[in-house]
Write a structure and sequence with these properties.
The chain is of the alpha/beta class. It contains six helices and five strands; from the N terminus they run H-E-H-E-H-E-H-E-H-E-H. The protein has a five-stranded parallel sheet with strand order 4-3-2-1-5.
Length: 171
């Protein structure tokens, strides 16, 4: 084997895996700290334009519940409330089945009366696992005063975002 060929092979072996040879890495590698959390009660402040985003809430609630183990309350006060209307069950059945599953597992669903009325609904229009409360923001504030930790679960999924920047890495 020629010296030139040996140098080429040796230099190729030194390149970082997965095509990151040109990626700047001035800060080193991240550390991992997979610690357990104390039991914490949480309140989810939900105001989604698109009821389909409740699917993302489902996973946020599941993951939070597993990690924190405390009580969880979802306060809904936006356009997503139409998915909780019994008249729309057929359209939102999959979503409502997920929300009902969360309720069965102990997640409380509280809906803002003001938002519900503004949308044209009455209490009896909503599914049975929902409790109507006077107002959404005061409900969130009241729960925080009781020690619940505030979570604003924006409906933005991180699934596969790596591949937006590096599509060639997707398997």
């Amino acid at each position: 084997m020629s010296m030139k060929r040996a140098l080429v092979i040796a230099s190729l072996m030194l390149l970082p895996a997965a095509g990151f040879a040109d990626a700047p890495m001035p800060y080193g590698k991240a550390k991992s700290n997979m610690h357990a959390y104390e039991k914490i009660n949480t309140v989810f402040d939900v105001n989604y334009e698109n009821p389909q985003d409740l699917n993302t809430l489902y996973f946020f609630a599941r993951n939070t519940g597993r990690a924190l183990g405390g009580k969880m309350v979802v306060v809904t006060h936006g356009p997503e409330l139409r998915a909780f209307a019994r008249e729309n069950y057929e359209k939102y059945q999959g979503i409502m089945d997920r929300m009902a599953e969360l309720a069965k597992d102990g997640v409380e669903f509280r809906m803002c009366n003001n938002a519900m009325k503004a949308a044209g609904y009455e209490v009896e229009d909503m599914h049975g696992f929902v409790t109507i409360v006077p107002a959404g923001f005061p409900e969130v504030a009241s729960l925080q005063a009781q020690g619940y930790q505030y979570i604003n679960p924006l409906p933005l999924s991180v699934r596969d975002v790596r591949y937006l920047e590096r599509p060639e890495l997707k398997k």
